[in-house]
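Action item from last meeting closed. Structure (238 res):
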């Protein structure tokens, strides 16, 4: 039987290929897990408002290619190991944020998403004429400052009326309501500039349509995807 003797070129190619596989395997092992944490209200915890139980954090970790084919490959698992720790709760206010962080143990790479303020507005701050929003600001700043995760991506509060006073659902003078929404969002932006990055969900949703909402003010399935769209470039940038 004739003994097979590889040529020098074949030998180098085989060794080179093996080396690439070894390097690739090492890189896969060394790639750090990224944990995405969500805190806050129904902007991030809106799964109960669509039939698939989907919320933005899930889509940022792994897109549903069947429902949202345009986002195929635009998720964290496409870039490496990633997991979600979902702590946001529908109905949350700024006072409930510390309870969402109870038992928090952060290991390795982490990114925090926070949306808060909408329920605080609905529970009275939409008519605030005094120190209510300042009190909100102090509570939020304290939470973000003490949160053991960096970076922090802090989203503001959207306007489900799209700036149209005819859609007013609060029974509050629109001029007062819009002024306090602006005050709230300016406060959130200021805190984000000190401790993390600001995500302008409000501006993004002004370009949307009523299909982005359900139950008047909650993100629909499409709304959940649009919240994801707003956060996505900032998540990828960290």
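Sequence:
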């Amino acid at each position: 039987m004739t003994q097979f003797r590889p040529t020098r070129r074949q030998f180098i190619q085989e060794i080179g290929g093996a080396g690439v596989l070894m390097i690739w395997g090492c890189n896969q092992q060394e790639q750090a897990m990224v944990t995405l944490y969500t805190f806050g209200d129904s902007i991030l915890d809106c799964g109960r408002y669509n039939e698939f139980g989907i919320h933005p954090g899930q889509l940022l970790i792994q897109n549903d290619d069947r429902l949202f084919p345009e986002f195929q490959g635009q998720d964290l698992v496409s870039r490496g190991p990633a997991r979600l720790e979902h702590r946001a709760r529908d109905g949350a206010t700024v006072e409930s944020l510390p309870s969402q962080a109870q038992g928090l143990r952060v290991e390795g790479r982490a990114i925090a998403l926070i949306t808060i303020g909408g329920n605080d507005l609905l529970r009275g701050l939409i008519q605030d004429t005094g120190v209510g929003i300042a009190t909100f600001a102090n509570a939020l700043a304290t939470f973000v400052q003490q949160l053991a995760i960096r970076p922090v991506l802090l989203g503001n509060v959207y306007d489900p009326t799209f700036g149209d006073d005819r859609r007013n659902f609060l029974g509050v003078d629109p001029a007062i309501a819009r002024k306090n929404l602006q005050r709230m969002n300016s406060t959130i932006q200021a805190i984000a500039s000190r401790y993390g990055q600001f995500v302008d969900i409000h501006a993004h949703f002004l370009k949307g349509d009523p299909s982005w909402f359900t139950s008047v003010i909650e993100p629909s399935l499409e709304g959940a995807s649009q919240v994801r769209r707003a956060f996505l470039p900032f998540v990828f940038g960290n």
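Note appended to the action item: Residues 8-30 form the longest helix (23 residues).
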